[in-house]
Structures are given as C-alpha cells and as structure tokens.
Amino acid sequence: MTESLSGENQATGSPLALQLKSVSKSFGLVRANRDVDLSVEAGTIHGIIGENGAGKSTLMNILYGLHRADSGEMWIDGELTAIRSSADAIGHGIGMVHQHFMLVPNFSVIENVMLGSEGGSLLKEGRTATLKVLDDLGQNYGMTVDPEAIVSELSVGLQQRVEIIKALKGGARVLILDEPTGVLTPNEAQQLFEILKVLRDDGVTILLITHKLAEIMAITDAVSIMRNGEMVGHRKTRETNPQELAELMVGRQVLLNVDRGVANPAEPLLAVEDLSLTSSGGQELLKKMSFEVRAGEILGVAGVAGNGQSELLEILAGMQQATSGSIQVLGQTITAKDPKDPKSVRAMGVGHIPEDRHHHGLVLEFEAQENIVLGQHDGALAGQGKFLDNRAITAHCRTLMDTYDIRPTNPNLKAKNFSGGNQQKIVIAREMNANPKVLIVGQPTRGVDIGAIEFIHKQLIALRDAGCAILLVSVELDEIMGLSDRIMVMNAGKQVGILDREEANEQKLGLMMAGLSSDQAA
Amino acid sequence: MSEFALQLLYTFDGTIRLATPLILCAMAGIFSERSGVIDISLEGKLLTGAFVAAAVAHTTGSPWLGVGGAILASVCMSMIHGFACITHRGNQVVSGLAINILASGLTVTIGIALFRQGGQTPLLAKGERFGPTEWWLVDLFNHVPILGTIYRELISGHNMLVYLALFLVPVSAFILYKTRFGLRLRAVGEVPAAVDSAGVSVIWLRYRALILAGLLCGIAGAYLSTAQGAGFVREMSAGKGYIALAAVIFGKWRPVPALLACLLFGFLESASSRLEGVPLPLIGEVPTQLMLALPYIMTVLLLAGFIGKANPPKAIGEPYIK
Lengths: 522, 322
Hints:
Mean pLDDT of chain B: 90
Radius of gyration of chain A: 25 Å
Shape of chain A: globular
CATH superfamily of the largest domain in chain A: P-loop containing nucleotide triphosphate hydrolases
Strand order of the largest sheet of chain B: 1-2
Number of helices of chain B: 13
Helix content of chain A: 25-40%
Largest sheet of chain A: 6 strands, mixed
Helix content of chain B: over 70%
Oligomer: heterodimer
Structural class of chain B: mainly alpha
Order of helices and strands of chain B: HHHHHHHHHHHHEEH
Mean pLDDT of chain A: 88
Strand content of chain B: under 5%
Structural class of chain A: alpha/beta
CATH topology of the largest domain in chain A: Rossmann fold
Largest sheet of chain B: 2 strands, antiparallel
Number of domains of chain A: 3
Largest interface: A-B, 34 and 22 residues
CATH class of the largest domain in chain A: Alpha Beta
Number of helices of chain A: 19
Number of strands of chain B: 2
C-alpha cells in the first residue's frame, strides 16, 4: 500500500519544499517511525493524518529538531539537510505551532514573540524590530494582537495566533501545525483556516497534522496517511474521500457515523434545576442550569472545553457539591444542603464515565482486573465478606474483556500499559456492566482511535435503546451531532440553549458555543 | 542627637552589615529559582565560600584572592547541584540538602587537616581581611549636625563587599528584566518547553543560572569570614542561606522586594542583639534566648501570614524532560 509521490512530482515538475526519505525513529523497543517517506510540494497545505500513536507527532518533532531520527534523510528545498535542534530547524525556515502552546503565560505577547530571537544581548534593541514584525504580520495576514497584552489573559484563539506569529516571525517558509483546532470553537477554526489559506497563497508551505477527516477534506491540497509508525498512503485531497482515508488510517473498514436509529424517550430520570456553582474565589462556574434527561435518550452537551462542562459532570457524579440548586435522580433529590457522595450516587443507579480517565477513571498502576471492579469492590463481584476473591475477579474481568473487546486480554496487565482506546473500554465496561439507569459520560473518545470510537459509540446507542438516560459531554462536535437526540450548548457556565438534533447544524452550534442564543444563531 | 536616635542609627548600621550576606544569597537564589531550580543549597554554598575565603586569604595574605577562591569553590558546589538535578534530573531539594550537609562536614574536615584548630581557620590579620572604607568628605560632613553623623555611621565606613552587594541588586534586576539572558531565564523557569522550542538550550541556561548563583554565594561567604568576621568558624553561616531563601520567597522572586525583605531580616537581627538585656516598656526584660529567636519567629510569621499570594516560577522543582 505504501507508495511515493516523488515520481509524480518529478513528472509535474513542481518544486518540493520538503522531502523525507526512509526516516526511522525508535524509543526503546517502540518503533515510532519506520522508513517514513514524505514529499511536500512548495506552497501547498499538506495534511498528515493518522490515529493517536501513529507517529505523526514524532515525525514532526524530528522535522523540527526536537527529536533526532535514527536513520533517514531530510531534504529541504532540494538540499540534503541535517537538523539537530530546533535552532537548526528555525534556521532552515521551519516554524512549528505546537498542540500545547509553547507560550509563557505571564509574559506579554511581545516578550513571547521575542524569546529566542531577541536580536542582541539587551532587549531594547530587538523590541522595535519585533514590534515592526508584529505590525507587518498583522497587516499582511490579518493577525493583529496587542503586543503588550499578557498572554494568559488572551483567548485561546488569540494565544494560538501568537504561536503562529512566533513561528512566522523569522520568515519561516514551512509551517507545521500540530492538531491546531482541538482547542478552538468552530468559528475560530474557520478564521484559522482563512489565515492558513492566505499564507499558502503567499508561498508558505503548511503541514497540518490532525486526526479530523473533515479538516483534511476542507483545507488541504494533499494528504499523507500514517498508521503504526508507517506511511501507508499519499493522496491528492480532491481525489480521495473521508471513507478511504479512515480505512487507510485504521487498516480496515470502519463506520464513520454509527446508525443512531430512532430514540424512544420516556419519563425523565435526571432533572437538574437552577444548579449553580461558585468557586472559592467567587467566580461563577455554573449559572442556573436547568434541564432534564429522559429514559432512552442521549442529551449531548456541546461547548468549547472549560465552559463549565467539567464542573457539571463532577457535580452530577457527586464528586463536587453545587452551591445551590437541586438534582433529581431516579426519584431522589440531591441538593446543596443534602449532598450525596459518589458512592451513594452510584448506588442510586448512576454510572459515570469521567472525562479524565487517567485521574478519575482508572488507577494506572493497578491491574486491569483491579480497575474493572473499582468502586464495585465491596459488592458481590469481588467476593463475599472482607476479602477479595481474586479468582472471581479474574474470571469477571475475562468475561468483560471478551464482551467489550479489550485488548490485550490480560487481566493482570497494568492499566497504564493499555492503549488509550483500551483503557477507555475498561472504564466503559465497568460502568456499563453495572446496568446504570442514568449514565454521565465525559469525552468518551478523547485520545481513542477510530476503531475504538466506532465501538464505544455503538455501545452508547445500545445502552440508550435499553432505556438508559445518557448525558454526553464532548468537545468533539461531530461526536455530539452523531450521537445526541437533543443538544445543549454551554458557554461561560451557562446553558445557551437546548436544540433537537434535527434543528442543529454545525454553524448554529458554533455560534451558540460562542455565546449567541439559539434565536440569534438561527 | 538624642540617645534613642543614635541607638536607632547604630541599629540601622547593623542592619546593613547583617543584611549583606542575605542580600547576596537572595540574589543568588533569585537566579537559580527563576531558572526553575530550587536552591536550598544557598546555605551550603555560603558556608563553603566562607571557609575557602578565609583559608585562601590566610595563606596568600590577600582578601581579594580569598573572594576569588570562595567564588570558585561555591560555583563548584553549584555545579554539583546542577549535575545532580539538571543533567541527571534528581530531586532538587534532596540534592540541595546533600550539598548543605557536604559543606558542613567538608569545611570542618579540611579545616582540621589544614590548620589543626578544631575546624577554624587562624584569625586573619588586618591586611588579610576587608576593612572599613572611609569615604571622602567624612571629615567635611562631620561638622554638619545629624546628617554628618548619619553619613559617617550609616553611609560611609562599611567594607567594599557591603557596597558591592547593594550595587548587585540593581544589576540583578537589570539582568533579569532588560537583557536577553534575563528574558530567557525567566521563561525557562516558567515554561522550559517554550525556550527549547525557540531553539535555546534549557540545560545550558539553567547551568548558567547556577553559575551566577554560585558566584554570588561565594562573595557572600567571603563577606562572612573575611569582612564581617576575621576567620572561619565552623557552621558560621548559621542558617543565613535559609533566611535568604525565605527573603526570595517573601520578595516574590524579584530583586528589589527581596532586598527589602533582607533588610527587614537584617533589622530584626540587629535590633534583637541591641535589645538583649534591655528592659522594654510594659514587657520588662525579655530573655536573651527569645530575642535571639525573634528573627526566626518573625520569618515564620511573615511567611505564613503576610506574604499574600506568591506565584513561584511554574516549572520550579521540575527537571526538564523533552
């Protein structure tokens, strides 16, 4: 399946900005990149797509000099080049916008932009020059930002703009963007794409790393697909389709959209009324939330990360107490005066798949079988009396591993040694096996590969059809739209509105996520 | 001039003398901590500096060579700290404590081996230590009431290292806020990955910060044994390194506020020695032990209650792993 573009390019004669020839990199026994070939034409947007752990980030870190390849060649503008450090990469006109911003939050914008290229041992000299660069970039690409603003006070979208400015300031001709839209609202992402197009038309070569097929289709000119550390294909974007890309990524046929079927909602099992949360610092994290989730439906909660979804999940699961308001669960009432701890919430019939499986879903240092009975370890599952019945636990774990397709099927393997998708399946198996009447789900497929996403989505639909009331929080709009029967949008701790699935589209949700009411967004 | 005012003036004079090693160590602490390395080893570096300064000054007869030796030794200690916790990513507190214990044992052991005086160095002669520098115009100003006395007692008459320490505070602030090195140093203590991705070596930056810290602690050590004192006495740093670290935190990792904190601690120490055995109004005579403990009690109280929200450098204590 591996093929190379270099032949085609020689045929068309368009110059290559960048070429990698059989680049390999191992970390211990893990071979992160195996004989990777990549050719990127100058002045194009080239997508690199692959699942988590496919080796995309490693490859880009090699390009940017953060890692050094074990073997292989790198050609930049037709010249064999060795990049040993980020300084080398910058010197060769390569700039990178990292997934986790490389910004000093308590520095001003200009200090962040200057860092690393101060233009002299005193800051004074470089300041004027940097101000001019900021001004130029602002005028040429519409990337204006206040040079004296403190970075931590900027919105995420503006912080990313600072990252891009940093990457471009030295006149970078190749710009690498690692999962740039993960933290942006759809509108901010759209703005970013506009900027990228202008940059491309200006001759900048852009490498876009993502796991979102829609982005690849929307903005790239060509795409390379990685799987298990190898390049498995190169395509012209206009000659391919999402289905083909997904299959190349996973290596088998996948369903991109699980068939949602028809929901048959019945009586409300979870009703939230006037729920508010104020932090100890006086910040209003949740403001008067009121909604209900009915048996046999999925209520999706859309919003950019950090708009109160995490707090809502934690309150519903009993991990945190609301400041005011009440929660009705399966006929019982939880109020701020009469709170319930997670154990009693669970006992009522509420399951919880936490947002952060590493901190709240699993004990990474524990074995799979210990994790799979976590929270249920004093019930019948784990044996009678005060002692754990390890044989019963192992047997139970094996059954669930079969049912939920958890691999490798080794009950004694530590949780940390499973892949992200399989870790998540351990949590899901545990929570679903308890037959919850209400299920609270946070980011069920974050850091999970496409194959496992398909499986998890099917499980959620099946549970819904069995009459469970599901509250699904996700920052992936595709996921919300693919699974939900109704969609609630949150912004700054408030519910902006609740839409039926049929009324919702990406644009409308995007505007609501930015805080516009559903009428304004319509 | 009234007796009270004169006493106060002497107390201020003592404040400056007692605060000098604190100031130097605090600047050292600011450099290493701003780079992301916890510097509990200020104490050990100070002690090492004190010993080597006295030993070299005694052997060569030159206090300046003593300072040079102290700087060298203190930088070496700093490099051990760096090797353990920058290169090998060891725990910075443990490494710092190890340096302190090492310094406390090593100075005495070598002292006994060299001078056979129970771990002390011989008493330094006049030319082997820093004497007071008489400023010009003292005689002229002497006749001016009040100001003359203040000029003579408070401003003039200290040794060179006192002025050097005070001079190094604005220098430190300048380096930190106005130079390329300072910008990178502040960045590396917050988000080392940002510095790395800008193509600047995190490791080398942190080593340079520790070299600076070693240099400043060396001068502070030399001050203890060849300026304030006249020879090295075992454990003569007596917790000053820790107090300086407290001043760094109290000053929120900024040079000028840290200077003020050092002066405050110096004042408390100076006042406590003046108030020993003096009956105070309402309270009466306070036991000597309590007076001696006062600076430390105040340190605890100040750190616990009055510092407000301190924002330490975010990456402090964390070794950088790519």
